[in-house]
Amino acid sequence: MPHAAAPPVILGNEPGSFPRSVLAERHPAIIRQVREAFPYGPDHHRGLDALLAACADGVIDPLPADAHDRDRWRVWGLDAHTGSSWFDVPWLWSESYFYRRLLEAVGYFGPGPWQGIDPFRPFKLAELEAPETDEELAALDALEGRPVEEQDRALLHGSLWGNRADLGFRLSDAGAEQRAAVPGLVADDSERLWELLPQADADSGSDTGSGSGSGTGTGTGTVCLVADNAGRELVPDLLLAAHLLAHRRCGRVVLHVKPYPYYVSDATTADVVDAVRKLSGARGAAGGRGRRLWQAMADGTLTVRAHPFSAAPLPYERMPDDLRAEFASATLTIVKGDLNYRRLVGDSRWAPTTAFADVTAYFPGPVAALRTLKSDVITGLDAGTEAALVAAEGQRWRTGGTHALIQVRE
Ligand SMILES: O=P(O)(O)OC[C@H]1O[C@](O)(CO)[C@@H](O)[C@@H]1O
């Protein structure tokens, strides 16, 4: 019962805290950016004005009576939080509800002509088309023909560090990308991750011109990859998925994405389509991987899942039975990013040395977290690592996005 000892859940009301700054500064900035990015009509502007005012000093309103997901949100705690200040309810809950209300304001859920128009799409596309993305894709050529272990590491770390600078994070922290990443991970269970995904014993990797196929796996298991951001994170996530399939470390990848635009840059099915199109049209090795991914989607070895709970304002411990069954049957679930980490371990200020295995004991199967550190929540550090981080940076290491971890619970 590890959660019996869980510290209180993080709220957004502590003056000077990171969560408070997200609610008080980042959310209004997001409203501004969205407003500037689209030629919205008067109703949209009125809706955005109302949300801006509510964020500043208002209270949480219920969803409209005819909202398609009103009952779901009531199950997720809407009734209990209605009338409370945005700052006084669990931070995870108010952040999540903010995105739900933002989409409401711009007509995303319809009915009407703006239904399904992603207010964050211009930012996501700009990133996908940025020269940095092409440079990262071109770098794949140098990886061709390298030993499989080297490819493993490069693609795993590509996926990990792809999480570093999501668009919401950069919005409120302009210096985020300039700060140098610290390559040494604060926790690194990557060997255990690869042990959970041994290569199949038949010949493998022929489509990449490498790979001995001398492993001990069956190559038939499923990896659930719980994606985080689109663009420069999703592209390396997809490359990792292609690598796992090509080297028969699994037979199937299920990519879990958000059912609607969320946390600015979180990936939806439309973003997967954009990323696979980008990859399959790329030159060199990246193009080969992209075309393999396209084929994997056609033959069902790569599938996309957009479960409503993927955008729930709740920890994964409260996942519904159907999702629990999916994760239970997976060989490994890889959970990407900071928000998913908060949901995986519970959004509380754990003592950093709290065992990752304890806080994820409820998870129905083997689980790996790949995350750069962008919020206060952290578990699974050894005491020496924590002490060294504090000595060097105070508490900045928790939120600066310069550190990363790979944690595994078998
Ligand atoms: O894209 P990620 O890695 O989930 O990060 C989400 C970011 O948003 C936050 O939830 C704050 O809004 C932080 O946890 C983190 O900085």
Automatic annotation (TrEMBL):
Signal peptide: none annotated. It comes from the Bacteria. Its cofactor is Mn(2+). Transmembrane segments: none annotated. InterPro entries: ARMT-1-like_metal-bd_sf, ARMT1, ARMT1-like_metal-bd. The keyword Cytoplasm does not apply. Gene3D superfamilies: 1.20.930.60, Uncharacterised protein PF01937, DUF89, domain 3. Keywords: Hydrolase, Manganese, Metal-binding. Residues 23-386 form the Damage-control phosphatase ARMT1-like metal-binding domain. The keyword Hydrolase applies. It catalyses: beta-D-fructose 1-phosphate + H2O = D-fructose + phosphate; beta-D-fructose 6-phosphate = dihydroxyacetone + D-glyceraldehyde 3-phosphate. Belongs to the damage-control phosphatase family. Sugar phosphate phosphatase III subfamily. This is Damage-control phosphatase ARMT1-like metal-binding domain-containing protein. It comes from Streptomyces achromogenes.
